[in-house]
Amino acid sequence: MLPIISADGVGKTFRQLKRQSGFSGAVRSLFSRDYSEIRAVDGVSFAIGAGEAVGYLGPNGAGKSTMIKMMTGILTPSAGALSVLGREPHTHRMTNAAEIGVVFGQRSQLWWDLPVRDSYDLNRHIYDIPEARFADNLAYLTAMLDMASFLDRPVRQLSLGQRMRAEIAMALLHDPKILFLDEPTIGLDVVAKDAVRKFLAEINRERGTTIILTTHDLVDIEEICPRLIMVDEGKLLFDGELKRLRASLGSRRRLTLEFATDPGPLVLTTATLSADEGAAKHFVLEDETVSLIDVLNEVGRGHGLKDVKLDEPDIEEVIRTFYQNKPSLAGAAP
Ligand SMILES: Nc1ncnc2c1ncn2[C@@H]1O[C@H](COP(=O)(O)OP(=O)(O)OP(=O)(O)O)[C@@H](O)[C@H]1O
Ligand SMILES: [Mg+2]
User: Fold this and answer.
1) Over the stretch 137-146, which tens digit does the pLDDT of each residue have?
2) What angle do CA 146, 152, 153 make, to 5 degrees?
3) With a threshold of 0.85, does the pTM exceed it?
4) β 305-311/253-259 pair status
5) 158-178: per-residue pLDDT in tens?
6) E-state strands within 94-250
7) How many whole angstroms from 62 Cα to the centroid of ligand 1?
8) Residue nearest to atom 10 of ligand 1 (CA)
9) Cβ of residue 64 lying under 6 Å from some atom of ligand 1
10) Which residue's CA lies nearest to atom 4 of ligand 1?
11) What letter would DSSP give residue 236?
12) Atom of ligand 1 nearest to the CA of 66
């Protein structure tokens, strides 16, 4: 598989004039060029194939938006090599723009005072989209994103959920091969989030559009992106399937055994007791190779076991554990 995006040791350093107090400080910094450097992206490498859906994840300030901006050609890397669809994005910004779509959750690409439809029409001219294909795409996107009721209203009148759907449609009208989304579900209610997720998963599946998405909502990742790239302080910490991340963190499954009456203290070798509520006992399964059957066999039939509940860790917990243990896990990145 030939990658359509490849990053090789990509870095971005921002220089900021250090703040100096008082007039003499300001004069001094003017002359001495007292800069501080922020390594927003620091030696990041990955390769993404056509048709993938990748979640780019990390805490605030980790360098996610900076990476997206480099891939879309808005920012120039200060180190390493970056290639999108066979080109260096920042030196081929216009050609790149014709083949990618970009959605910034925090910034509108639509014309604020114009009806949504007029922004789309402008895009048709900018990207020279053939009339018939434009009409087809607009009809498809209007139906899929349920936009008929607000296509003729000015953008400033739209609700956030309506605007976000309009933004996504705008980014897709010219049939881009790659869609970059920087926090597309930020601020949306659960219903709107769900609609956006379903749609993104659908165009990835049905149209083969490659999706790169940053988010703080882990459900976005679960529903759209089988692959996860995790960064912190500019550095890549993990690149792989969510499934592999779960596995690499140990299973940490939780098990609750409910008995008809309190069987008294229960010590097992297959599971570790985490809380004892008498008739209900809570365990953690630390060993991935231990199955529920193994535990039940060890408990035996003698105690009047009434109910069993096994919980897999949810994605929030997996990610939290990952960042808590990151020094020891940093080496786990391929
Ligand atoms: N234009 C800029 N000039 C100076 N510093 C910048 C600039 N843009 C970003 N930074 C800094 O680079 C670092 C990474 O910022 P970035 O916006 O990429 O983070 P992020 O992962 O998108 O965070 P968030 O989750 O908050 O959106 C931060 O420390 C930020 O302050
Ligand atoms: Mg950001």
Assistant:
1) 999 999 999 9
2) 95
3) no
4) antiparallel
5) 999 999 999 999 999 999 999
6) 100-104, 178-182, 210-214, 227-232, 235-241
7) 7
8) 40
9) yes
10) 14
11) E
12) 18
